[in-house]
Specification:
about 35% helix, 15 strands, 2 domains, alpha/beta, TIM Barrel, 13 helices, binds S-adenosylmethionine, binds iron/sulfur cluster, nine-stranded mixed β-sheet, about 375 residues, globular, three-stranded antiparallel β-sheet
């Protein structure tokens, strides 16, 4: 990999921005995200990290045309930064007035006041990491909150007037199908607008990976995970939610076309930008950017990042240019995951896995369990 020139062409206006906040109070045993429980001094500590991001934003303004229509503060735990610092970052970005502005939050790191402050600053949506409603599952995942915290946080989110999403994880070792049903029902009782349900991935290098390798915890069973996904689709559909990406479900409003995600009030526009292969600009250590056929990613460690921006240097680590074929394949892999599907002719091996709608192939619920296989067939690698 090499350094690449950042494209400045106005033809590639990034519509979305991602801001990475690389701090957590505890590293959850399953998580391999670029996040740290330590502070690293000036520009790389919770109390002053925002200064580094502000420097990077200033430098990026030489390249950016137009205003961001979606902004996503992800982590790590963005809500470990105080609302004032988060607001400073948001206000430094060129953001459209009707933009969707999301922040990820861990339940134990928000208060009624901090959520109100975020809403006043221009945040429109909170994605709360609930993961499970079952204490033994939360303990296996090393989560810091108790299930009783969620209804309290949900009320604060509503009082602040923010759209409300919850993240859940299924397939944790020791979680039964009944446990997962309990988590889904608890999540629905919070009346969220949006739910993400992720199948637990045992990432190499994590504590969970070591526990599974040593036989302390059982390997998640893919058949059980499939049953849990089918249950998710059934329970959420009955509760008035509709999928718009394999792991993402949005509350459906009367009259909404379920297959047109861009017109769904509660489908995340930021998520859709990723799956549509639109351009986005990433800020913070390890953040990835994607503009036209160019991808690049920043230096990973918060200290190296802080030093680079302090020296007025773009904190890019490496990048690559994608060929036309690579981009076509990427588009296929991303769009087949969405309820809008892909324009492609039907193939006999996809019977039961996709439906045809106006020349587009859209995954059935069985197809969503086998999305990788469907992609390989459409790419001509199977059959
Ligand atoms: C990286 S976290 C950041 C948000 C916040 N710190 C939290 O934990 O809720 C974003 C989401 O990624 C998901 N996630 C992280 N690691 C995962 C893994 N190994 N398998 C499945 N989902 C994972 C979790 O559901 C989490 O809510
Ligand atoms: S899952 Fe969230 S809280 Fe846990 S370590 Fe990862 S980023 Fe931090």
């Amino acid at each position: 990999m090499a350094q690449v020139a950042i494209p400045i062409s106005p033809a590639h206006k990034a519509k979305s921005a991602y801001v990475h906040i690389p701090f957590c109070t505890v590293r959850c045993g399953y998580c391999d995200f670029n996040t740290y429980i330590n502070d690293f001094g000036p520009g790389a500590s919770r109390g002053n990290y925002h200064q580094s991001v502000l420097r990077e934003i200033e430098m990026s303004k030489r390249c950016i045309e137009g205003k961001f229509r979606t902004v996503f503060f992800g982590g790590g735990t963005p809500t470990l930064l105080d609302a004032k610092s988060l607001a400073e970052i948001l206000h430094a970005l060129p953001v459209a007035t009707d933009a969707e502005v999301t922040i990820e939050a861990n339940p134990e790191t928000v208060t009624a006041q901090s959520l109100k402050d975020l809403a006043s600053a221009g945040f429109t949506r909170v994605s709360v990491g609930m993961q499970s409603a079952v204490p033994k599952v939360l303990a296996t995942l090393d989560r810091q909150h108790r299930p009783e915290r969620l209804p309290v946080v949900a009320q604060w989110v509503r009082d602040a007037g923010l759209d409300f999403s919850v993240d859940l994880i299924y397939g944790t070792p020791g979680e039964t199908l009944e446990d997962w049903k309990t988590s889904l029902e608890h999540a629905l009782s919070l009346e969220p607008d949006h739910m993400s349900a992720y199948s637990l991935i045992v990432e190499p290098g994590t504590k969970l990976h070591a526990q599974v390798a040593r036989g302390i915890l059982p390997q998640p069973d893919p058949d059980e995970a499939a049953d849990k996904y089918l249950l998710t689709d059934q329970v959420l559909s009955e509760a008035g939610f509709a999928w718009y990406e394999i792991s993402n479900f949005a509350r459906a409003l009367p009259g909404e076309d379920h297959l047109d995600a861009s017109k769904r009030r509660f489908a995340s526009r930021h998520n859709l930008a990723y799956w549509r292969d639109w351009d986005w600009w990433g800020y913070g250590p390890g953040a990835h950017s994607h503009v036209g056929d160019t991808r690049w990613w920043n230096v990973k460690h918060p200290l190296a990042y802080a030093q680079r921006v302090r020296d007025e240097e773009i904190p890019m680590h490496e990048g690559e240019k994608l060929s036309v074929e690579d981009r076509e394949l990427e588009r296929l892999m991303l769009s087949i995951r969405t309820c809008e599907g892909v324009q492609a002719p039907m193939r006999p091996e996809l019977e039961g896995l996709v439906t045809e709608n106006d020349g587009r192939l859209i995954l059935t619920v069985q197809g969503r369990l086998m999305a990788d296989y469907v992609t390989r067939v459409l790419a001509g690698w199977e059959g």
